[in-house]
Each structure stands twice: as C-alpha cells, then as structure tokens.
C-alpha cells in the first residue's frame, strides 16, 4: 500500500514538473522580456508591436520574449505556439495591475520592471549599460 502511494506521488510530481516552465534554463545564455497580462489588452498589443519592429536588436542583445497570460504562455512572436500553464503568471503577476513587463538579465536577476509599455529605447539603453553587455560589444568590434 505504501509503495503504491509513493509511486502515485512520484508520478504526480514528475507530471507537474514536466508541465512547469523553468526560466533558469536561460541563465547565462539569454536575457528575457516577460510580458505579463490578464488578457490581450491594448498595452499588450502595443508592447508586442514595439518589440517586433526591432527583432535584430533583440537578437543582438540575446533577448527572448515571453508572453504570459493566466492560463498559458508562449515565446517569440508567433501566435500558434502557446503552452498551457498557470505557473509563470502566478509567479510574475503583480497585484493592482493588469499589465507588467520585466527584463531579466543573463544572471537571472530582475533588471527592469514596469506596468506601462516599455519603449525600445529604454530597454536597449538599460541593457547596453550593463557590464556584461559592454563586454559583449567590445568583443564583437
């Protein structure tokens, strides 16, 4: 009986972890932009449009875009690659706001957060002033 319960618990936790999205896989490889919203609002659409216009700049800065809604998330700009999950929304949703955008650095730390649309200028200036980005730019000259 105890073995059966242990086995069922093991299966349950394994299944939960398979569906959970772990952002730490990006650490030291990618910077992340998290766009967290309750629904596809006007701010959400404006933020996506602002980022889409500058995809080369995003690529140069090793940025991966996460779109996060209460029941699902997706990376990039494609509309069809949504995955079911409530974990990211639960972790990054801020109270008293239906929209939040965050920048997570290569080290996994939060570098910028706001509840208004983030301009590409502010985003790129924030990243370009970071020591690791400065080193990347010197290396790529």
Description:
- The protein has a single domain (24-139), classed as 3-Layer(aba) Sandwich (Glutaredoxin).
- It has 6 helices and 6 strands.
- The termini are far apart.
- Mean pLDDT is 87; it is low at 7-20.
- It has 141 residues and is of the alpha+beta class.
- Strands 4-3-2-1-5-6 form a 6-stranded mixed β-sheet.
- The radius of gyration is 18 Å and the shape is globular.
From the alpha carbons, calculate the radius of gyration and give it in angstroms.
18 Å
- The percent of residues in helical segments reads 40-55%
Question: Which strand order does the major sheet show?
Answer: 4-3-2-1-5-6
Measure the end-to-end span: 65 Å
What is the correct CATH architecture?
3-Layer(aba) Sandwich
User: What structural class do you assign from the helix and strand content?
Assistant: alpha+beta
CATH class: Alpha Beta
Number of domains: 1
**Tally of helical segments:** 6
* Order of H and E elements: HEHHEEEHEEHH
Mean pLDDT: 87
Q: Which shape, going by the Cα principal axes?
A: globular
Reported by name, the CATH topology is Glutaredoxin
The number of strands is: 6
> Could you name the ranges where pLDDT drops below 50 across 5 or more consecutive residues?
7-20
Percent strand equals 15-25%
Largest beta-sheet details: 6 strands, mixed
Considering the protein shown, what is the CATH homologous superfamily? Glutaredoxin
């Amino acid at each position: 009986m105890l073995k059966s319960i242990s086995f069922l618990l093991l299966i349950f936790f394994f299944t939960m972890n398979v569906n959970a999205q772990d952002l730490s896989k990006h650490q030291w490889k990618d910077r992340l932009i998290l766009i967290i919203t309750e629904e596809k609002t006007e701010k959400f659409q404006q933020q996506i449009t602002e980022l889409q216009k500058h995809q080369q700049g995003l690529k140069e800065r090793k940025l991966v875009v996460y779109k996060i809604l209460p029941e699902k998330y997706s990376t990039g700009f494609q509309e069809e690659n949504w995955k079911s999950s409530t974990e990211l929304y639960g972790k990054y949703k801020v109270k008293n706001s239906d929209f939040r955008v965050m920048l997570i650095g290569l080290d996994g730390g939060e570098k910028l957060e706001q509840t208004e649309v983030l301009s590409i200028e502010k985003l790129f200036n924030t990243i370009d002033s970071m020591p690791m980005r400065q080193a990347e730019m010197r290396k790529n000259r």
